[in-house]
Specification:
By secondary structure, the chain is an alpha+beta fold. The protein has a single domain, classed as Pathogenesis-related Protein p14a (3-Layer(aba) Sandwich), CATH 3.40.33. The chain contains five helices and four strands. The chain has a four-stranded mixed β-sheet with strand order 1-3-4-2. A hairpin with a 5-residue loop joins strand 3 and strand 4. It is globular, with a radius of gyration of 18 Å. The chain starts with a helix and ends with a strand.
Length: 153
Amino acid sequence: MTLSFRTGLAALLCSFVLFFAPAAQARDRDMTEDILYFTNKFRSSKGLKPLVLLDELSEQAQAHSKNMARKKVGFGHKGFDKRTAAIRSELGWGSAFAENVAYGHLDAEAVVNLWINSPGHRKNLLGDYTHIGIGIAEARDGSLYFTQIFLAK
């Protein structure tokens, strides 16, 4: 392998990453907005106020989704207390928290419907919360990992 071939290969790989990373970020942004929409649509159908998307919550939800997708933590709620403590520390407020997680080859509506049809997740969706954070990460097999963090003032 010559130096110019290696340089060309490296440039090609960088171009590949630079081309697809923004596309994945745009997909995640759109999916986050859709998850928020379907979550609030469900809450509205039950006479509840819409949740407000909060960046500090989404950052923690995103980190948890990435950690699950990369197998740094198992699928579930491990570390929830640490996530909520970090949020409370950063915001300086927060009286109650809840979390929903899911994974699979799902779109936004399907994942919200999955949570709606699960009693524990449904309880969180209908809780007396004011804010939400949403995180999405893709695993190597293409499945998506989802996290919702709910917060009450």
